[in-house]
Amino acid sequence: MSGLFEFNALSWLAIILVLLFGAAFVFRRVGQTVTGNAPKFRDMPYGAAFGYVLAAALLIFAVWYYLQPTVTDVGVPNAGVMFFRWAIHGFLIAAIAAFLFRLLGRSIGTAGSKKLFRTMPLTASFGILVILIYAFVAIFAGAIAPHGQAEVFGTANIMAGGDPALGGDPAFPLGTDQIGRDILSRLIYGAQNTVGIAFITTCLAFVIGGSLGFLAATIQGWLDELLSRGVDVLMAIPSLIFALLLMTIASVWAARLGVPLTVFMVLIIALIDSTRVFRLARAVGLNIVVMDYIEAAKLRGEGLGYLVFKEILPNAMAPLLAEFGLRFCFVFLTISSLSFLGVGIQPPLADWGTMVRDLAPFINFAAFAPTAAITPLLAAGAIALLTVAVNFVVDWMLHKSSGLKE
Amino acid sequence: MSDLLKIRDLRIEGRSDETWTPIINGVDLDLKRGEVLGLIGESGAGKSTIGLAAMGYTRDGVRISGGSVEFDGIDLVTASARVKRDLLGKRIAYVAQSAAASFNPAHKIIDQHTEAPVQHGVAKRSTSVEDGIELYRKLRLPNPDEIGFRYPHQVSGGQLQRAMTAMAMSCRPDLIIFDEPTTALDVTTQIEVLASIRNIVDEFDTAAIYITHDLAVVAQMADRIKVLLRGDEVEEAETREMLSHPKEDYTKSLWAVREFQRPEKPPAPADAVPVVSVRNVTAAYGSTDVLHNVSFDIHAGRTVAVVGESGSGKSTTARCITGLLPPRQGEILFDGEVLPADYRKRTKDQLRQAQMIYQMADTALNPRKTIGEIIGRPVRFYGGLRGAKRRERVHELLDQIELEPAQYYHRYPSELSGGQKQRVGIARALAADPKFIICDEVTSALDQLVAEGILRLLADLQDKLGLSYMFITHDLATVKSIADEVVVMKDGRVVEHGPKTDMFTPPHHPYTDLLLSSVPEMDPDWLTDLLAERGVDNLGDAAVDKM
Q1: pTM (2 d.p.)
Q2: DSSP assignment, residue A136?
């Protein structure tokens, strides 16, 4: 059984694909015969038929995989199946929570908010729910967290779940980190530190970049030239290295002035990110200033402030919002990167980026101790969840505002 | 001969807010080989929708809900995508309104021309190129041998429209659908395109559906005319029959639009100080002069129409008056006083006195503001009115432009029709309580009936408020109906200037004569007569160049 007929993973894949191609052909032909040549099947491209069949095959595989036992015959946990089950459960819980939240929104509140919820897609209500939960946790972190963020307990126990039989500790449901701090409490405080700082930074970047960008688009001439070339110079320097450089300088000042380094970090990241916002705002603004209503406002004798904030800004809201969602996530990751390198949010303040870094080695346990391996992923998951939620909401807002224009 | 296209009880629906609303309510249509049918109606009448349905196609969010579209025995409503693919482009072709937007700017014209024949296997690329050059020659394009090897932006609008007609002809289709092919063109260019379309359709005996809102144009092109109103057929008849004896009231009202005419007011006394006086203005974009020594006066309560083709400097003159483009030489006087050249240096009161109404109401109104905010801003800005008083004044203005205040105050511009938007533009200008208003092509984007309503409104307002208008237009019918004086411009110079009656009675300046004679008339023989008179080589651009 060697040589020609030796099956490896690749040849299995090839066989499956060939079978699927055949199935797609049969599917389309059967569809045509059964429905008596309905346009849906008659005009179906072969690629689309293949897509349907492939999707069906993947769905069957997912169900089969979900039903596999979590522990193998020899008693080793089957990590793949466990993670897959967690993902499915998480997805279902999220969907149900979003659905219930939307139902709640539809029945409670003013007529306006009810109408808003009626037309809202499930993704958006999920995003809003997540953001609300994050905001709640961030604001009331001190009251919610069972322990302080810097409180060190005797033992380092990374087993999540709090089940003594599996080696957990009921006092610390998500375990304790490498120097014995409660991970749950640090996650909760992390929401306050990381999200709060990222939000402030992003807002600052938008205020600086947005107003300068619109100003450049409205006034044009030498001001535009000056600002645009300045931004070009700033953007030419790799942003993380530039931020590091500035942070190094700032750390000297911070010590001398007695201002927390975090304030400098916010300013520096806001400055660097505002260059991206500037370019977008300027490009969008240039398209708007050529409109006749801007000319009409100029001829009326309106001042610069009115032109920028009352005439241009409302029309630039859609692209700026989309950018806000993305920019927020980037700022978030930049802060985490800086924290990773040791110049960001300073210990003992809890920060999700630092938490991922500190616990990262445990990811290697995934194959035989899935519960231990998720410890670093908790903080990463918190980042990912918020990123997804923000983008869902932004997508929905974009869709809504573009629909208004039609 | 049998019918080429047979539409029976065609019903089309469009989706808005999750529900399907009817757009076309059962229209029948027959077209024989070699016949030209004119489809006419206001915007929203469903002309283009029927035109597209004749190809078995609907736009996104629109569906055919009933009836049949039979092309040469094939029902396009139920035909498979493959069957339609074989027909479209090969036996049925489409010419869109804006050739500039329909050509791909990244490819040469000839490459786009040969695409359909090569794809359908009608001809090889080399023969198709030769055929394209032949068609360009037939359509009287200049330099037919090399024009196809240019990119779309290197060719003028009228030429591009003809190149698109050539492209539609490339497979020698049985049916061509022309969707407002000359609406975006100047009168002098329009003639060229009309003449060449007519010749080539005759020569190849192609059937055509010609969609337009311009009656005079359809009179030249069509054998039969079908009038549509909000998705229903009003009537259909042979062109001559339809023009001389329209049966339905709606058709008669369409015909009557051209008859709105305002008597010319007596000339202003010789010693009166003009409201606006343009004195020897020369202006430039960069280093090229676009206005040369332009002078004219606008007196109180009178309308001065400035006419000319695109590029003649009409709008540039307006920009000089408003101060957006400070002139290089010369000055603008307002009530006898010299205005600062730059609008930024003018006082608030000077800015208030002169207002402007724009051609495209879509871009002239901020889409993110309600009608109340748009009109209310100048009320507050100039008049200093706030709160209830401001609201009251806006209501008053909405009354003046004949829009129900309670209904429109909180709406956004996107919820208004084109004519209503233009009215809001007028109200915004009136809100400043001006003496003088510049109307920049305010009716050219509107249907004739709607445009007529706007013209009547402007005339009424002039009588009530004693306004002076500078009316920029390329449409001589509009000039006829509203102007007291006419200024004819060409290449940045004033060619002729005088009272309206003088302008419309010979002898004219040769350019005025060309403009006047290029305006299509309702007489179906007009184009034929004009061609006989001028000769085919003396149309449009060619005629202008010879001057």
Answers
A1: 0.75
A2: H
